[in-house]
Specification:
By secondary structure, this protein is an alpha+beta fold. About 20% of the residues lie in helices and about 45% in strands. Strand 11 and strand 12 form a beta hairpin. The radius of gyration is 17 Å and the shape is globular.
Amino acid sequence: MLLQLESPSICTIVRRVNRFVVEVKHAGKLTRAHINNTGRLLEYIKEGKTAYCLPHGGKTEFRLIAVDEEGSGALIDTQLQMKSFEEAVRRGLLDWAKCEIVSRAPRVGSSKLDYLLSCGGYKVFTELKSAVLRQDGYAMYPDCPTLRGRRHIWELIELARIGHKALIVFVAGIRGVTAFKPYVEGDAEVARLLKMAYESGVGIRAFSVYYEPETSKIILDKSSLEIVL
């Protein structure tokens, strides 16, 4: 177990209103839930799917964190994916990341990456990406074109080329996958850039977590997934 959350409310997906709002049905009435994952998530955000929501202030009553998927919860909430990574690093649960978090949101070029880590005496610029698309045992990213994702990979490549340590981590928020690979149909340029990143010395890693609705816990499934580029 990585994180214990408060008890969820069970909602039913109705439709996606925009990038950040999903209409859901809860206790027989229509309401709205905030979503922070900007992927298309077509296999999850569709009418009739069971979802797990937490209270949320502001213009939406709920925050949608996970969607039922093959008997467990696909963790689509990117903030909770990041917290899962932080907790796994803090507790030394990722053999490939014996590190400490130096800072969050370091600025690099025109962007902010997610973390600056310290690993074995080296500073490592690190970016996390959400990989919740499932296909034949693979977790994949991205499920749609992403200019932001391309830009982050380019910046990691440039950092590696001038001698910095750089790392991209894919958080597979789904249970039972064994490997990660880029989804070429989602963005062929991202797939190409990931190969370039690997050849330039950027580390590419992946691990999997999932949401357990019965206990409202986030569970570490596999600490390392095979990378297939």
